[in-house]
UniProtKB/TrEMBL annotation, chains A, B:
E.C. code: 2.7.4.16
Protein name stated in the entry: Thiamine-monophosphate kinase
Domain PurM-like N-terminal: 28-137
Residues binding Mg(2+) 2, per UniProt: D47, D75
Similarity annotation: Belongs to the thiamine-monophosphate kinase family.
GO molecular function, one term: ATP binding
CDD domains: ThiL
Other facts noted in the record for this chain: Reaction mechanism of ThiL seems to utilize a direct, inline transfer of the gamma-phosphate of ATP to TMP rather than a phosphorylated enzyme intermediate.
This protein's record includes keyword ATP-binding: yes
Binding positions (substrate): H54, D262, F314
First-tier enzyme category under EC: transferase
Gene: thiL
Location of the PurM-like C-terminal domain: 192-299
Residues annotated to bind Mg(2+) 3: D30, D75, D211
Amino acid sequence: MGEFELIRRFFAEAACARTGQGLVLGIGDDCALLELAPGEQLAVSTDSLVAGVHFPDPCDPFLLAQRALACAASDLAAMGAAPLGFSLALTLPAASADWLQGFSAGLEKMAAACDLRLIGGDTTRGPLNINITVFGRLPAGQALLRSGARPGDLLCVGGCLGDAAGALPYVLGQRPAIDSQVESLLAHYWTPAPQLALGQALRGRASAAQDISDGLLGDCAHIASASDVALVVELERVPLSQALLAVEPIDTARRHALSGGDDYVLLFCLPPEQLDALLAEGWPVQVIGRVEAGEGVHLRDAAGRPLSVPAAGFQHFSR
Amino acid sequence: MGEFELIRRFFAEAACARTGQGLVLGIGDDCALLELAPGEQLAVSTDSLVAGVHFPDPCDPFLLAQRALACAASDLAAMGAAPLGFSLALTLPAASADWLQGFSAGLEKMAAACDLRLIGGDTTRGPLNINITVFGRLPAGQALLRSGARPGDLLCVGGCLGDAAGALPYVLGQRPAIDSQVESLLAHYWTPAPQLALGQALRGRASAAQDISDGLLGDCAHIASASDVALVVELERVPLSQALLAVEPIDTARRHALSGGDDYVLLFCLPPEQLDALLAEGWPVQVIGRVEAGEGVHLRDAAGRPLSVPAAGFQHFSR
């Protein structure tokens, strides 16, 4: 099967039919063509997942495709962007029809869940590497940046943390996946749900936002640095899932939540007067601390006493 | 050196300073932000280059970066788009400062030559894989598509073909690079010049266009299929460089020109009345054949007699 036939068979058919809503021209020419409504800006982010680094190899291609697209789409959520589309640059060792069947089905499932259309791509031979570039739309000037946090803001997250890190021993086969709690953790690892709707709801309300991909504390450091403020995290307010607490002691669960990574949950700063309305609308907003004058990230107990901060989040090349 | 430090050190400094002209926000947040002028569309294309497949490994990172960006930018030229920016997703086995120094210098050189700014990226550890997504701007409805060729049009290319294929034995070290002719071939392989200005000049004039990356005949087949026409190539009109003819007999040179690939020269169809003005303006337009009713790609000699068509262009997974 040639490269062109392969692309046509698995990806092009579904993608080409869906122009409209910002997509003028999809797969099949030298470039895709996008357009914006007057007053809109385009948000763009690119992410690569590498076999053996970001996921175990081999693994189920149906799950892998969902995870790859969800990780990339989470960056759109973090900017408050409305989803538009994505391109896929897929490097794979061989053109296996079975593998591609599973991968394209997973891609289609997550694309539908995120309301993202495949707009173009590239397929090459080599060690398995999945690169996805996502595109979203935003009213000009309303993007959620990392740089707007102000002393007095509340520090918030969009849900429980640490589940993906808690799933890792099961993902890697180091422990048997025995019950529904573990299944819930595995779902957070393989099929995270990018908080695209929450991100859009935070536009004009949150002062700063990003998604947690490298671990809570490491990602807090990015906001603290970009906004030139200190972020205070109260350890006991960091939300932990029942599933994580069912398989790990609380100290391990908290370590996963603070620096485990792969959460793809939004982290954001909120002027206090914005909180009630968001909660009344039913958004999953959990206050975990506050923004202060100063610098860096500070972990405290419920009485406000400082706790030592464990090692920073995941960094490639640093270990 | 951590991932974030690495990115900052080699890529972010040059990139961040250059907002404006469509780039609202560059490297450093969850997404980059682009904007378009009223009536503009955005052209997007993504390309991955894999070590050992698209380039020899090891090779000079200064040249490799130039080649990677030029290959991607050529897709913008093929649509007639004006360059805006690019994102880089770089997967590399180790964070070598020497390698990154060379790579970032090469990237900067080609970015300046193509008037493209680095708008964002991702850096991960794994087998060397360079993914570049390019962004360009176009007046709405003026993109050069593959589907507009009409019987009676002239079939044209923007320059000599086959040089990159002719360079391959020297790139791979199978022959010693001895003279300036070989250096010229090597330059076409490592630092092709995407025909961005020619592409923009062809807007409103060419009926169809694409860039030649997989070999002339294979790429002609894409236009023939998309436009539902036959393309006739006259073998003796396909332009060959003095450098290629200095190192190869004419039959080999022609084989390289017809199916060698990696040319990154524009292929386009031109209503005959457009030719004189383009030539008068000094554009490198070479007529190599014509568009006829029918289907497929047909190779003919100067007397119009059919010649057999050699194997199609480069396809991953097909060999």
